[in-house]
């Protein structure tokens, strides 16, 4: 088990990313006490920890995801801070500190803390990365960015409906003051490792909130044409006080035009039906990046029925090619993953 490589016995989070080409596993562990974040590299066979480093953070940033390109590890350091001393003083354990800095680190695969090149970026909270890849001197990072964290604390107030409802309104998605602060939009950072320049922009509009991205895992760490996300039903989420995903989206990164949002296709579910655990399954012998199936678990709240929808990624907006009814409920928040297995004789 990969968890045998856990760095610190009290680690509160552990993430794994597979590097392209070498198939090594890049892992991070986050802890509320020092060392706040450690990174390691595990051999492709999963048996040996071949590199380990304390990145010498001076705070516990809840870094929920990371990336790996051909040459680099990509580290997210946003100001969603876990602070035990704040609890002792009567505050919350976890808080988004909007005035603190946000940065992204680019680190050689077997680098040290000193080898990380840090790029300060616009304040944000990015839980999930779509993909990272190298493009000449730039490391390109695509992720689902919000201007604050969806994880609340006492500062939000007791009326969850009020702040959750306002947070998903799309009329002011770039500000913290009025509304739109919970919208997650697919964002791109271009980090020039030669000059230190940062270029960043949104790739999707403020008309809907997208999160839990996924891709064809064969292009992890490589330049890619497509990405997929779950799409929040803002009204249903506001009413219920939890995130509910009423559709999935296919994003065409290769059809980007200037500063306009990239082309997006949507596969919408029936009314009061919401998904969780979506993943891409490549077709055997597939040639193109989107030769494959989208598999997602859905729940119909009116009929209290959980199902699996299977969608042709090339005919994304068409009806599902198969729907499987499950014998029991699959809870929201379930994460899906596809792992290929050798054929059994």
TrEMBL record:
Q: Which GO terms describe its cellular component?
A: chloroplast stroma
Residues annotated as binding Fe cation: 15, 64, 128, 335
Which BP terms in the Gene Ontology apply to this protein? carotene catabolic process
Asked whether the UniProt record includes Zinc-finger among its keywords, one would answer no
What Pfam families is this protein classified in?
A: RPE65 (PF03055)
Top-rank taxon of the source lineage equals Eukaryota
User: Is Cytoplasm one of the keywords?
Assistant: no
Q: Which UniProt keywords apply?
A: Dioxygenase, Iron, Metal-binding, Oxidoreductase
What's noted on cofactor binding? Binds 1 Fe(2+) ion per subunit.
Which InterPro entries does the protein's record reference?
Carotenoid_Oase
Report what the protein is called.
Answer: Carotenoid 9,10(9',10')-cleavage dioxygenase 1-like
Q: Which gene encodes it?
A: LOC105116320
């Amino acid at each position: 088990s990969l968890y045998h490589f856990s760095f610190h016995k009290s680690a509160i989070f552990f993430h794994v990313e597979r590097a392209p080409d070498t198939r090594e596993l890049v892992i991070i562990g986050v802890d509320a006490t020092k060392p706040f974040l450690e990174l390691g590299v595990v051999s492709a066979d999963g048996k040996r920890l071949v590199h380990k480093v304390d990145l010498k953070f001076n705070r516990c940033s809840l870094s929920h995801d990371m990336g790996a390109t051909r040459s680099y590890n990509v580290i997210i350091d946003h100001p969603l801070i876990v602070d035990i001393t704040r609890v002792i003083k009567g505050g919350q354990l976890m808080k988004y500190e909007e005035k603190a800095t946000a940065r992204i680190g680019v680190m050689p695969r077997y680098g040290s803390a000193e080898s990380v090149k840090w790029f300060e970026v616009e304040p944000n909270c990015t839980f999930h990365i779509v993909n990272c890849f190298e493009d000449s001197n730039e490391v390109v990072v695509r992720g689902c960015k919000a201007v604050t964290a969806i994880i609340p604390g006492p500062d939000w107030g007791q009326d969850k409906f009020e702040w959750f409802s306002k947070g998903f309104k799309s009329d002011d998605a770039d500000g913290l003051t009025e509304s739109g602060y919970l919208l997650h939009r697919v964002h791109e950072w271009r980090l020039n490792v030669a000059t230190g320049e940062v270029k960043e922009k949104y790739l999707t509009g403020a008309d809907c909130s997208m999160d839990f991205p996924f891709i064809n895992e064969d292009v992890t760490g490589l330049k890619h044409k497509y990405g997929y996300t779950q799409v929040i039903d803002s009204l249903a989420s506001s009413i219920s006080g939890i995130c509910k995903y009423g559709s999935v989206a296919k994003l065409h990164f290769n059809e980007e035009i200037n500063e306009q949002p990239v082309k997006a296709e949507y596969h919408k579910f029936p009314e009061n039906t919401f998904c969780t655990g979506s993943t891409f399954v490549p077709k055997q012998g597939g040639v193109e990046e989107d030769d494959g199936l989208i598999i997602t678990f859905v729940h119909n709240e009116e009929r209290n029925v959980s199902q699996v929808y299977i969608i042709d990624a090339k005919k994304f907006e068409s009806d599902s090619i198969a729907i499987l009814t499950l014998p029991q409920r699959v809870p929201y928040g379930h994460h899906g993953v596809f792992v290929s297995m050798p054929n059994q004789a």
